[in-house]
Amino acid sequence: MVEYLPRSAWNARPPNGGPGNLTVSRVQGAVIHWPGTGSTKVIHTKAAVASALRGWQDYHMDSRGWSDIAYQVAVDQAGRAWTLRGLRTQSGANGDNDVNERYGAVLLVLVTGEQPTAAMKATTRAVIADFRKIYPRGTAIRPHSAVRPEPTDCPGDPARAAIARGDFTPGHTPGHPEDDMTPAQMQELKNFIEARTQAYALWVHKQLRRDLTAVAKAYTLDIKNYERQTDAADAARAAAAVWATAPKSLQTDGTPATPEPTPAPDPNTDPPLPAADLDPFPPVDTTPDDTAPASTTPASTTPASTAADDTAPASAAPDGTATAAATPDAAAPGGAVSGVNP
After folding, report:
1. Does the reported pTM lie above 0.70?
2. How would CATH label the architecture of 4-178?
3. For residue 155, is the peptide bond before it cis, meaning its omega torsion is within 30 degrees of 0?
Protein backbone atom coordinates (compact mmCIF):
# COMPACT_ATOMS: atom_id res chain seq x y z
CA MET A 1 0.00 0.00 0.00
CA VAL A 2 1.27 3.42 -0.94
CA GLU A 3 1.65 6.15 1.64
CA TYR A 4 0.83 9.47 0.04
CA LEU A 5 2.47 12.55 1.48
CA PRO A 6 -0.22 15.24 1.92
CA ARG A 7 -0.20 18.64 0.23
CA SER A 8 0.94 20.14 3.49
CA ALA A 9 4.20 18.15 3.20
CA TRP A 10 5.31 20.42 0.40
CA ASN A 11 3.47 23.52 1.68
CA ALA A 12 1.09 23.70 -1.27
CA ARG A 13 -1.10 26.71 -1.96
CA PRO A 14 -4.84 26.12 -1.97
CA PRO A 15 -6.29 25.60 -5.43
CA ASN A 16 -8.04 28.43 -7.21
CA GLY A 17 -11.24 26.66 -8.16
CA GLY A 18 -10.80 23.66 -10.43
CA PRO A 19 -12.34 21.44 -13.09
CA GLY A 20 -13.84 18.91 -10.63
CA ASN A 21 -13.52 15.15 -10.50
CA LEU A 22 -12.97 12.72 -13.35
CA THR A 23 -15.90 10.76 -14.75
CA VAL A 24 -15.15 7.11 -13.99
CA SER A 25 -16.72 5.72 -17.16
CA ARG A 26 -14.63 8.00 -19.43
CA VAL A 27 -11.19 7.31 -17.97
CA GLN A 28 -8.98 5.16 -20.21
CA GLY A 29 -5.70 5.19 -18.33
CA ALA A 30 -2.85 7.19 -16.79
CA VAL A 31 -0.25 9.38 -18.52
CA ILE A 32 3.37 9.57 -17.31
CA HIS A 33 5.04 13.03 -17.16
CA TRP A 34 8.29 14.67 -16.12
CA PRO A 35 9.01 18.33 -15.23
CA GLY A 36 11.00 18.93 -18.44
CA THR A 37 13.06 21.79 -16.96
CA GLY A 38 16.11 20.98 -19.11
CA SER A 39 18.30 20.88 -15.99
CA THR A 40 20.57 17.95 -15.12
CA LYS A 41 20.70 18.81 -11.40
CA VAL A 42 19.04 15.90 -9.63
CA ILE A 43 16.17 16.39 -7.17
CA HIS A 44 16.46 13.59 -4.66
CA THR A 45 16.07 14.82 -1.10
CA LYS A 46 12.67 15.33 0.46
CA ALA A 47 13.30 19.05 0.94
CA ALA A 48 14.47 19.47 -2.66
CA VAL A 49 11.37 17.70 -3.97
CA ALA A 50 9.04 19.81 -1.80
CA SER A 51 10.72 23.01 -2.99
CA ALA A 52 10.48 21.93 -6.63
CA LEU A 53 6.78 21.13 -6.27
CA ARG A 54 6.08 24.59 -4.85
CA GLY A 55 7.97 26.21 -7.73
CA TRP A 56 6.04 24.25 -10.36
CA GLN A 57 2.73 25.11 -8.66
CA ASP A 58 3.60 28.79 -8.69
CA TYR A 59 4.47 28.61 -12.37
CA HIS A 60 1.25 26.81 -13.28
CA MET A 61 -1.01 29.09 -11.29
CA ASP A 62 0.75 32.44 -11.76
CA SER A 63 2.23 32.12 -15.27
CA ARG A 64 -0.18 29.70 -16.94
CA GLY A 65 -3.33 30.78 -15.14
CA TRP A 66 -4.31 27.29 -14.06
CA SER A 67 -6.25 26.52 -10.90
CA ASP A 68 -3.47 24.39 -9.30
CA ILE A 69 -0.35 22.38 -10.08
CA ALA A 70 -1.29 20.40 -13.16
CA TYR A 71 -0.61 16.80 -12.00
CA GLN A 72 -2.53 14.42 -9.73
CA VAL A 73 0.37 12.62 -7.99
CA ALA A 74 4.20 12.94 -8.01
CA VAL A 75 6.73 10.13 -7.39
CA ASP A 76 10.41 10.85 -6.62
CA GLN A 77 13.55 8.72 -6.95
CA ALA A 78 13.37 7.68 -3.29
CA GLY A 79 9.97 6.11 -3.95
CA ARG A 80 7.92 8.75 -2.11
CA ALA A 81 4.43 9.51 -3.39
CA TRP A 82 3.25 13.14 -3.12
CA THR A 83 -0.37 14.22 -3.26
CA LEU A 84 -0.85 17.07 -5.77
CA ARG A 85 -4.44 17.41 -7.05
CA GLY A 86 -5.25 13.86 -5.99
CA LEU A 87 -6.30 10.83 -8.04
CA ARG A 88 -9.97 11.80 -8.22
CA THR A 89 -9.49 15.36 -9.47
CA GLN A 90 -9.12 15.99 -13.20
CA SER A 91 -5.59 17.07 -14.18
CA GLY A 92 -4.59 19.94 -16.41
CA ALA A 93 -1.35 18.46 -17.75
CA ASN A 94 -2.24 16.23 -20.70
CA GLY A 95 -2.76 18.79 -23.45
CA ASP A 96 -6.44 19.69 -23.77
CA ASN A 97 -9.76 19.15 -22.00
CA ASP A 98 -10.63 15.97 -23.93
CA VAL A 99 -7.33 14.23 -23.08
CA ASN A 100 -7.51 15.49 -19.49
CA GLU A 101 -10.96 13.96 -19.11
CA ARG A 102 -9.79 10.56 -20.45
CA TYR A 103 -6.45 10.21 -18.65
CA GLY A 104 -4.94 10.80 -15.24
CA ALA A 105 -1.49 12.43 -14.81
CA VAL A 106 1.45 11.05 -12.77
CA LEU A 107 4.60 13.18 -12.44
CA LEU A 108 8.02 11.49 -12.19
CA VAL A 109 10.55 13.80 -10.53
CA LEU A 110 13.33 13.28 -13.09
CA VAL A 111 15.85 15.53 -14.79
CA THR A 112 17.19 15.27 -18.32
CA GLY A 113 18.79 11.87 -19.04
CA GLU A 114 18.06 10.47 -15.57
CA GLN A 115 17.01 6.83 -15.30
CA PRO A 116 14.08 5.94 -12.99
CA THR A 117 15.24 4.01 -9.93
CA ALA A 118 13.77 0.73 -8.78
CA ALA A 119 12.08 2.57 -5.89
CA MET A 120 10.46 5.06 -8.27
CA LYS A 121 9.22 2.23 -10.50
CA ALA A 122 7.80 0.26 -7.59
CA THR A 123 5.91 3.24 -6.16
CA THR A 124 4.62 4.24 -9.59
CA ARG A 125 3.26 0.72 -10.09
CA ALA A 126 1.49 0.97 -6.73
CA VAL A 127 0.03 4.39 -7.58
CA ILE A 128 -1.29 3.12 -10.92
CA ALA A 129 -2.77 0.10 -9.15
CA ASP A 130 -4.68 2.48 -6.86
CA PHE A 131 -5.70 4.49 -9.93
CA ARG A 132 -7.16 1.36 -11.53
CA LYS A 133 -9.15 0.57 -8.41
CA ILE A 134 -10.94 3.87 -8.86
CA TYR A 135 -11.11 3.64 -12.67
CA PRO A 136 -11.41 -0.05 -13.65
CA ARG A 137 -11.40 0.78 -17.35
CA GLY A 138 -8.37 3.02 -17.08
CA THR A 139 -5.76 0.34 -17.69
CA ALA A 140 -3.65 2.14 -20.30
CA ILE A 141 -0.24 3.58 -19.34
CA ARG A 142 0.95 6.11 -21.90
CA PRO A 143 3.83 8.59 -22.18
CA HIS A 144 2.73 12.21 -22.50
CA SER A 145 4.25 12.33 -25.99
CA ALA A 146 1.74 9.67 -27.11
CA VAL A 147 -1.44 11.59 -26.16
CA ARG A 148 -0.59 15.31 -26.35
CA PRO A 149 -1.98 16.90 -29.55
CA GLU A 150 1.22 18.93 -30.02
CA PRO A 151 4.69 17.32 -30.10
CA THR A 152 6.54 17.00 -26.80
CA ASP A 153 9.59 15.14 -25.46
CA CYS A 154 7.83 14.42 -22.14
CA PRO A 155 8.55 12.24 -20.15
CA GLY A 156 12.04 11.75 -21.68
CA ASP A 157 13.67 8.72 -23.29
CA PRO A 158 14.49 6.77 -20.09
CA ALA A 159 10.90 6.95 -18.84
CA ARG A 160 9.51 6.11 -22.30
CA ALA A 161 11.73 3.05 -22.43
CA ALA A 162 10.57 2.01 -18.94
CA ILE A 163 6.93 2.33 -20.03
CA ALA A 164 7.62 0.20 -23.10
CA ARG A 165 9.26 -2.48 -20.94
CA GLY A 166 6.27 -2.52 -18.60
CA ASP A 167 8.26 -1.25 -15.62
CA PHE A 168 5.31 0.87 -14.41
CA THR A 169 2.67 -1.80 -14.97
CA PRO A 170 1.17 -3.21 -11.75
CA GLY A 171 2.26 -6.78 -11.17
CA HIS A 172 5.43 -6.37 -13.22
CA THR A 173 8.65 -7.59 -11.60
CA PRO A 174 11.86 -6.40 -13.23
CA GLY A 175 13.74 -9.50 -14.31
CA HIS A 176 17.10 -7.89 -15.05
CA PRO A 177 19.16 -5.53 -12.90
CA GLU A 178 20.26 -3.62 -15.98
CA ASP A 179 16.85 -1.91 -16.00
CA ASP A 180 18.31 0.54 -13.47
CA MET A 181 21.59 1.12 -15.28
CA THR A 182 22.76 4.55 -16.35
CA PRO A 183 23.37 5.34 -20.04
CA ALA A 184 27.12 5.09 -19.43
CA GLN A 185 26.69 1.65 -17.88
CA MET A 186 24.45 0.57 -20.72
CA GLN A 187 27.09 1.66 -23.26
CA GLU A 188 29.79 -0.16 -21.31
CA LEU A 189 27.67 -3.30 -21.25
CA LYS A 190 27.01 -2.95 -24.98
CA ASN A 191 30.73 -2.62 -25.72
CA PHE A 192 31.48 -5.65 -23.55
CA ILE A 193 28.84 -7.75 -25.29
CA GLU A 194 30.09 -6.73 -28.74
CA ALA A 195 33.69 -7.55 -27.82
CA ARG A 196 32.71 -10.92 -26.40
CA THR A 197 30.57 -11.64 -29.43
CA GLN A 198 33.44 -10.88 -31.80
CA ALA A 199 35.83 -13.02 -29.76
CA TYR A 200 33.36 -15.88 -29.73
CA ALA A 201 32.77 -15.56 -33.47
CA LEU A 202 36.53 -15.72 -34.06
CA TRP A 203 36.80 -18.80 -31.85
CA VAL A 204 33.92 -20.49 -33.68
CA HIS A 205 35.56 -19.66 -37.02
CA LYS A 206 38.88 -21.21 -35.97
CA GLN A 207 37.16 -24.23 -34.46
CA LEU A 208 35.08 -24.85 -37.56
CA ARG A 209 38.09 -24.37 -39.81
CA ARG A 210 40.09 -26.93 -37.80
CA ASP A 211 37.21 -29.38 -37.75
CA LEU A 212 36.51 -28.96 -41.45
CA THR A 213 40.19 -29.46 -42.24
CA ALA A 214 40.18 -32.71 -40.28
CA VAL A 215 37.03 -33.83 -42.07
CA ALA A 216 38.55 -33.00 -45.45
CA LYS A 217 41.70 -35.00 -44.65
CA ALA A 218 39.66 -37.97 -43.46
CA TYR A 219 37.49 -37.77 -46.55
CA THR A 220 40.53 -37.63 -48.83
CA LEU A 221 42.03 -40.67 -47.06
CA ASP A 222 38.74 -42.55 -47.43
CA ILE A 223 38.66 -41.72 -51.13
CA LYS A 224 42.22 -43.00 -51.59
CA ASN A 225 41.43 -46.19 -49.67
CA TYR A 226 38.32 -46.68 -51.75
CA GLU A 227 40.27 -46.16 -54.97
CA ARG A 228 42.90 -48.67 -53.87
CA GLN A 229 40.27 -51.19 -52.91
CA THR A 230 38.41 -50.58 -56.16
CA ASP A 231 41.60 -50.97 -58.21
CA ALA A 232 42.42 -54.22 -56.39
CA ALA A 233 38.91 -55.52 -56.94
CA ASP A 234 39.02 -54.55 -60.62
CA ALA A 235 42.39 -56.27 -61.02
CA ALA A 236 41.07 -59.41 -59.34
CA ARG A 237 38.02 -59.44 -61.60
CA ALA A 238 40.21 -58.90 -64.68
CA ALA A 239 42.55 -61.71 -63.66
CA ALA A 240 39.59 -64.01 -63.06
CA ALA A 241 38.19 -63.14 -66.48
CA VAL A 242 41.55 -63.86 -68.18
CA TRP A 243 42.00 -67.06 -66.21
CA ALA A 244 38.52 -68.20 -67.25
CA THR A 245 39.55 -67.95 -70.93
CA ALA A 246 42.83 -69.86 -70.45
CA PRO A 247 43.19 -73.41 -71.85
CA LYS A 248 41.94 -76.19 -69.66
CA SER A 249 45.45 -77.54 -69.27
CA LEU A 250 46.44 -74.33 -67.51
CA GLN A 251 43.47 -74.39 -65.18
CA THR A 252 44.43 -77.73 -63.56
CA ASP A 253 46.64 -77.99 -60.53
CA GLY A 254 49.84 -78.66 -62.51
CA THR A 255 48.40 -81.81 -64.11
CA PRO A 256 48.04 -81.74 -67.92
CA ALA A 257 44.46 -81.90 -68.93
CA THR A 258 43.07 -84.27 -71.53
CA PRO A 259 43.38 -82.65 -74.97
CA GLU A 260 40.14 -81.28 -76.14
CA PRO A 261 38.69 -83.16 -79.15
CA THR A 262 38.78 -81.38 -82.48
CA PRO A 263 35.25 -80.33 -83.33
CA ALA A 264 33.70 -81.82 -86.50
CA PRO A 265 33.63 -79.39 -89.46
CA ASP A 266 30.38 -77.65 -90.07
CA PRO A 267 29.06 -78.65 -93.51
CA ASN A 268 27.28 -75.33 -93.79
CA THR A 269 30.43 -73.29 -93.28
CA ASP A 270 33.35 -72.96 -95.69
CA PRO A 271 36.56 -74.23 -94.17
CA PRO A 272 39.02 -71.52 -93.26
CA LEU A 273 41.84 -71.03 -95.69
CA PRO A 274 45.38 -70.20 -94.68
CA ALA A 275 46.46 -66.68 -95.40
CA ALA A 276 49.01 -67.93 -97.94
CA ASP A 277 46.30 -69.54 -100.05
CA LEU A 278 44.46 -66.25 -100.21
CA ASP A 279 47.49 -64.25 -101.42
CA PRO A 280 47.15 -63.53 -105.19
CA PHE A 281 50.90 -62.99 -105.41
CA PRO A 282 52.53 -65.76 -103.43
CA PRO A 283 56.28 -65.50 -102.87
CA VAL A 284 58.57 -67.54 -105.19
CA ASP A 285 60.74 -70.17 -103.54
CA THR A 286 64.34 -69.61 -104.75
CA THR A 287 65.94 -72.27 -102.56
CA PRO A 288 68.16 -74.70 -104.67
CA ASP A 289 66.76 -78.21 -104.92
CA ASP A 290 69.45 -80.90 -104.38
CA THR A 291 67.36 -83.45 -106.33
CA ALA A 292 66.94 -81.31 -109.48
CA PRO A 293 68.26 -82.75 -112.87
CA ALA A 294 71.35 -81.44 -114.62
CA SER A 295 71.54 -77.69 -114.61
CA THR A 296 71.16 -75.79 -117.80
CA THR A 297 73.69 -73.33 -119.10
CA PRO A 298 72.57 -70.35 -121.11
CA ALA A 299 73.63 -70.49 -124.76
CA SER A 300 76.36 -68.15 -125.81
CA THR A 301 75.33 -65.18 -127.87
CA THR A 302 78.63 -65.48 -129.75
CA PRO A 303 78.14 -66.45 -133.40
CA ALA A 304 78.92 -70.07 -134.25
CA SER A 305 81.83 -69.13 -136.46
CA THR A 306 83.67 -67.54 -133.52
CA ALA A 307 82.80 -70.11 -130.85
CA ALA A 308 85.55 -72.43 -129.70
CA ASP A 309 83.17 -75.37 -129.84
CA ASP A 310 79.55 -75.38 -130.99
CA THR A 311 78.87 -78.41 -128.89
CA ALA A 312 78.92 -78.41 -125.08
CA PRO A 313 80.72 -81.20 -123.34
CA ALA A 314 78.69 -83.63 -121.41
CA SER A 315 78.24 -82.82 -117.72
CA ALA A 316 78.57 -85.47 -115.15
CA ALA A 317 75.37 -86.58 -113.54
CA PRO A 318 75.28 -87.73 -109.97
CA ASP A 319 74.88 -91.36 -111.15
CA GLY A 320 77.96 -91.15 -113.39
CA THR A 321 76.11 -91.06 -116.74
CA ALA A 322 76.68 -88.35 -119.20
CA THR A 323 73.88 -86.18 -120.58
CA ALA A 324 73.96 -83.69 -123.38
CA ALA A 325 73.92 -80.05 -122.35
CA ALA A 326 70.97 -78.08 -123.59
CA THR A 327 71.67 -74.89 -125.48
CA PRO A 328 69.13 -72.27 -126.28
CA ASP A 329 68.04 -72.00 -129.92
CA ALA A 330 68.09 -68.45 -131.12
CA ALA A 331 65.36 -69.22 -133.68
CA ALA A 332 63.12 -71.07 -131.26
CA PRO A 333 59.95 -69.18 -130.64
CA GLY A 334 59.40 -67.94 -127.16
CA GLY A 335 62.96 -68.60 -126.20
CA ALA A 336 62.27 -72.37 -125.91
CA VAL A 337 65.09 -74.63 -125.01
CA SER A 338 65.78 -77.57 -127.41
CA GLY A 339 68.39 -80.27 -127.29
CA VAL A 340 69.24 -80.12 -131.04
CA ASN A 341 69.06 -77.58 -133.82
CA PRO A 342 66.31 -78.13 -136.46
Report:
1. no
2. 3-Layer(aba) Sandwich (3.40)
3. yes
